[in-house]
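Quick note —
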Amino acid sequence: MSGTDLTHPWAISRRHVVRLGRFHQHGETETTILMRTTRTLTDAVGAWRALARRAGADTVVGVAIAAGTMAALSLFLVTAYFVILFVIGIGAAALPIVTKGVRRLCDLNRRAAGRCGIPVDSPYRPGPQEFEKDIVGWMRRCKWILTDPATWRDLLWLLLNTAVGMIGFVPAAVLYYALEGLAVAAGLWRPVLDVNGSGRWYCFITVDSWGSALLAVLPATGLLLAWPWASRAALVAHAHFTRFLLGPTRSAELASRVRHLAETRTTALDTQAAELRRIERDLHDGAQARLVGLGFTLGAVERNLDRKPEEARRLLAEARESSVLALRELRDLVRGIHPPVLAERGLADAVHALGIASPLRVAVETDLPGGLPAPVESAVYFSVAELLANALKHAGADHVAISLRYSGGVLSARVTDDGHGGADPVRGTGLHGIRRRLAAFDGTLDISSPVGGPTVTKMEIPCALSSPKTSSS
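Predicted structure written out below.
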């Protein structure tokens, strides 16, 4: 066998051994490369499918926005008509009803803007707690509506949206034109050619042969690939327009901020007063009662020490047990006010301790580069404890994941459980208490809890670090 005879089976075997040796030298085999390529293709297909689903949803929302322009124009004309009637002395009964429809349409467009990542807060002034049922009440309601600057901005938006809202047809138009080009290139040009004898015109191309049909595939494919980005660009443009007119002005934001601070201040004072009453009640019914009983027991020991030493020993044992119970209740009370582990080790270790003490399987992940203000740590600690208790008692969860992050001046806490879901922050007093606790620090509480689970609760509190990191985690 010569050295160049590659047809010999042993020569072929040596060649494959050399090739496999090269793959092993680089830490890869043919199977590994195939698996990696398959995984890459699968990820790419999944990304395009997700992009297509988002573009489809954007197209539907865009069509709804464009279709709503007619409703916007109708509401503008009807509202303007009843405003004029109110000015001349009539129309007070219909104006609040029409304005409710206007605000509902505007709120839908605010939600559409928020879907594109451009949140638009409600700019309306809070109304009175209640209105009278007579004509005076209707007049007060109309005065409240007409003196709110947001009402007039709504009307301006209704008028301008009849033109600007047509941008919502852009995603559907791009998709339709791309599919039309592909259909023409696939053979639709032939019946058109048979009918009029001149072929089908598409994107500056007269499609009257298979060659021109193949050429028409290029712009059609380009439009189809650009459709997801064109859809999102059209909705983002409309969202900016919506935020410009339907968002709160600077003065409205300041007024809302003042109202929020007043509400949180009142809530904090009420919470503090309720906490003081709870501490007083727990001391009176628990440790104080045991200490009083301990005094009586020691008095009985003093009287029986000489005459009945056995009885005195028994009473001393009761006194010792009572003192231990009183000390335990005091420790529990202090732990309910501010847990020692929170004061000594910080929020990260305190949350780890909560996970260890819970009967659930709890995974805790923290990334806190430094210490946090003690009130903030306390608020987050008790909020996480409440969520763990809810997952155990109400959600029927087996596993809970807790994540603590600090970034950009905001402390974020995320609690996820695999329970049956269905948590309602409106009906749940515990969740309402967490929201009030966080609101005292300008914090927010977001809950996603579909029926069947999982429940994802995200808390955010703006705060500054108070000290370098000292936790062991």
